[in-house]
Amino acid sequence: MEMISRFRDKDIVKLLLENIFKETETDKIYNIMEVCGTHTMSISRFGIRGLLPKNVRLISGPGCPVCVTSQGEIDMIFELLKYNDVIAAVYGDLMKVPGSDGRNLLDLKAEGKDIRVVISPLDVLKLKNEQKKGVVFISIGFETTNPATAGLIEVIVNQGLDGFYILTLNKTMPEIIDILLEDKELNVDGFLCPGHVSVMTGESLYLPIIKRNKAAVITGFEPVDILYSILDIIRQINCKNFFIKNNYGRVVNSIGNEKANGLVYKYFEPADSIWRGVGTIKNSGLKIREQYKYLDASERFGLHPSDKLEIDGCKCGEVLKGKILPNKCNLFGLMCTPENPVGPCMVSSEGACAAYYKYEI
Amino acid sequence: MNSTTMMLGGGGKATNDFIKNYIIKYFGNVYLNDLRDASKLKTNGNISFTTDSFVVKPEFFPGGDIGKLAVYGTCNDLAVSGAKPKYLSLSLIVSEGYSLENLDKILNSIKLAVDEIDVKIVCGDTKVVERSEEPSIFINTTGIGELVVDLNNYNNINIGDKVIITSDIARHGLAVLSERNELNVDTEIKSDCCNLYKIFEHVGYEGIKFARDATRGGVAAVLNEIKEHSNKGFLIEEDRVPVEEPVKYLCEFLGFDMLEIANEGVAVLICENDKAEEMVGKLKELEIAKNARVVGEVTDSKKVLLKNSYGGIRVVEMPDGNLLPRIC
After folding, report:
1. Which residues in chain B are contacts of A1 at CB distance < 8 A?
2. How many Å apart are CA B203 and CA B285, to the nearest integer?
3. Exposed site from A109, A345, B164, B176, fewest CB < 10 Å?
4. In chain A, what is the straight-line distance between the N-terminal and C-terminal CA atoms, in Å?
5. Given an 8 Å threshold on Cβ–Cβ distance, is A91 in contact with B315?
6. B239 to chain A nearest CA, in Å?
7. What is d(CA A321, CA A151) in angstroms, rounded to the nearest whole number?
8. Which pLDDT band holds residue A341 (cuts at 50, 70, 90)?
9. Which residues in chain A are closer than 8 Å to B254, comparing Cβ atoms?
10. How does residue A128 score in pLDDT terms, banded at 50, 70 and 90?
11. Which residue of B has its CA nearest to A13?
12. For B257, nearest residue in chain A (alpha carbons)
C-alpha cells in the first residue's frame, strides 16, 4: 500500500492541480482520450473529472477488453454452452454480459450450465480432474492478458493435457489506435496511453499518435500518475511539441516485454477481429497457430461469430469511439444499468458506462 | 454413524436420538427441554422479531463458521434494531452424507455464541435433504428481542447528524472468498464476526438515532438503503473510513470496492452531531469497536457521496450483488 499511497499523496495532487489550472489556456478546449478501462475507472473513482478546469475534457476510448468484444463473439459463448456439455471458464467481468436474447452467463449458470469464474488462465488447470467433460477457457483481453493465455497454452502443450480448449477473443491495440486517429469526427488532442498494455508493447505503439501531432503520454493508474500526465498533455498541446512521454517508467520500459510477446506469438498469429460498434479490423486480433489448432475451441466446437455488433439502441460503439459520453446514450441509467446491462460498456467493471453510472455525480 | 443420513431427518428414533444427543446436549434450557410443539415465552413490552438464513460456503472460515454466523447474524439484527436478544429458533437443513464431526463443531460454536450473547434457543427443526453435490449445511435462525429503543425509524434522521462506523470494514467478505481459494492469494484476514449487542450494552442508546449492521453489500448498501427510505443523503470522507492495510491492499489488487464488501461485526450508527465524538471515545473502549470512527454526515443531497483527501467526490452506488474480480 505504501507504494500506492505515494501516488495518492494529497499535497502532490494539489500541486499538480494548481499547475494544470495555471497552464490551461482558457480560450482552448483540451480533448484528452484515455484508451484504457482501468484509467476510465480511476478517473471516475477518484473524482478527477470534477477537479479539472471545465475546458479540459476527458473522453473514454475503447479500453475495456470485454466492452470491445462484439455481440456476435459474445453470442458464440452462448452457442458453445447451448449445444455442448462443457465447463466454460471465464473472467468475472463476463458473467453479466448479455447475449442477444438478453440472458447472461449468470442466468445460464442458474439453469445448470457449468460456468466457472477464474482470476487467472492458470486457474483453469485446477479443473484437471473434470476435463473429461471438456474445459473451454474463454480468452478475452488486450496485450496485458494475452501472454497469460499463451502461458496456459504452454502448460497444456508441455504437459500434454487433453480436454482443454481456448476460445480466443483476444485483441491487440495498435490497429484500433490507427482507426481512432483516422476518424475525422474524433477531435482528440492527446492520449493517456495505457500503462498495462505499454508494459508489453513498449513505447513504439504510440508513434502514429505523435506523427499526427497529438500528445501521447504513458500513464499509471493512480491520481498522481493521471494528473501528472494530463499536465504533460496540456503542455505538449500548448507548445505544439508532440512526443511520447513515459510517465509509468517504474513499470514500463521503452521496448516492452520481449519474452512475453515471444510467448504470445509462439502460440498465436495475427487475425482479423470484430470490434463492438466498429466492425472487423484487419489483424487486430489473435488466433491459435495451425500447429496448435486442436486447442482452438472454435475449431473443436464449430463456432463462428455472427457479424452482429450490438443490441438495438445500445450506443456502446459510439462510446467506445469517444463520440458520445456514456450518459448521452438513451438507454443509460434507464434500460441499461450495471444490474441489468444492455451493452458491455455498462457490464464490465472496466467499462466507461459502468464508471459513469457508478461514480460520476 | 459418522455422517448424516435421511433417517436423521425422518422424525423417528434417529431424529429423537439426534435431538437428545446433540441439540439438547448443547442447548438444553427450561424452554427447550420439554420439547413442546411451541415454546411458552415471556417478554416485557414491545418485541423485535427477525429471521435470517445462512448458506455460507465453506462453512468454516478464518475467524468464524456458519454456526457462529447464524447466531450473531440474527442477534445483531435485533441489537441494531434497538432490542436485547432473548430467544432464538434454530433450523438445520443438512444434506445426507454431511460429516457429523463437522456438525458437532458447528453446534459447539453455536453454543459458545448463544452463551456469550445470553440468548436462549427455544425451538428448532432438522431436515435432511438428498445429496446432490458436496454435502452441505444451511441454517436458519429466527430471533426475538425485547425492544429498548427503536433504532430503525428513518424519521429520526436529521441533516447534520454524524455517521459512525463501529469497526474496520470488509474483513468478512474477503476472509470467506480467500478460504474458498477464489482469490488465489494467501491472506491472514479474519472475519469480524462478533456480537454487536455488546456495543449497546456498553454505550447505551443516548444520542444514537439509527443503527444498522453492514452485512451483505457492506457499508455502501446500508447507506444507500437509509438514503432511499429517509430521503436524505450522506457525505462520507474516504480517509476516515476504518480499514486494515491488508484489506485495503487486497481490494486494490482485485478491483473490489471495500465499501461493498460484507461485514459481520460492523454497525453503522447515525448519531446526534454533538454526541458523536464522545460516542466514538466510548466505543473505542471495546475490543470489537476499537477502530470506530466518525466517517461523515447526513446531508440533503439525496445521494451517497464519497469525498477523497484532495476533494474529488464520487457517488457510492447500491452494490449490484455480485463481487466479481476484474479482468486485468
Report:
1. 245, 248-249, 252
2. 10
3. A109
4. 27
5. no
6. 11
7. 31
8. confident
9. 119
10. confident
11. B310
12. A45
* Pairing outcome for strands A190-194 and A215-219: parallel
Q: Compare B252 and B195 and report the one with higher pLDDT.
A: B195
CA dist A73 and A140 (Å) reads 10
Within the 90-149 window of chain B, which residues sit less than 8 Å (CB to CB) from chain A? none
Block residue for cell numbers 476460445: A167
> What mean pLDDT comes out for the span B278-303?
97
Tens digit of pLDDT for each residue in A32-54?
999 888 898 899 889 999 999 99
Give the pLDDT confidence score for residue B33 in this predicted structure: 92
Omega of the bond leading into B58 within 30 degrees of 0 (cis):
yes
**Least confident segment among A241-250, A280-289, A350-359, B278-287:** A350-359
The distance from CA A63 to its chain's CA centroid, rounded to whole angstroms, is 4
Q: DSSP assignment, residue B21? A: I
Q: Which H, E and C letters describe chain A, residue by residue?
A: CHHHHHHHCHHHHHHHHHHHHHHCCCCCCEEEEECCHHHHHHHHHCCHHHHCCCCEEEEECCCCCCCCECHHHHHHHHHHHHHCCCEEEEEHHHHHCCCCCCCCHHHHHHCCCEEEEECCHHHHHHHHHHHHHCEEEEECCCCCCHHHHHHHHHHHHHHCCCCEEEEECCECHHHHHHHHHHCCCCCCCEEEEEHHHHHHHCCHHHHHHHHCCCEEEEECCCHHHHHHHHHHHHHHHHHCCCCEEECCCCCCCCCCCHHHHHHHHHHEEEEEEEECCCEEEEEEEEEECHHHHHHEHHHHCCCCCCCCCCCCCCCHHHHHCCCCCHHHCCCECCCECCCCCCCHHHHCCCCHHHHHHHHCC
- 3-state secondary structure (DSSP) of residue B167: coil
Partner residues linked to A114 by β-bridges = A87
Look over chain A and give the mean of its residue pLDDT values, rounded to a whole number. 91
For B261, which DSSP code?
S
| pTM of the predicted structure, to 2 decimals | 0.85
Report which DSSP code applies to B273.
Answer: G
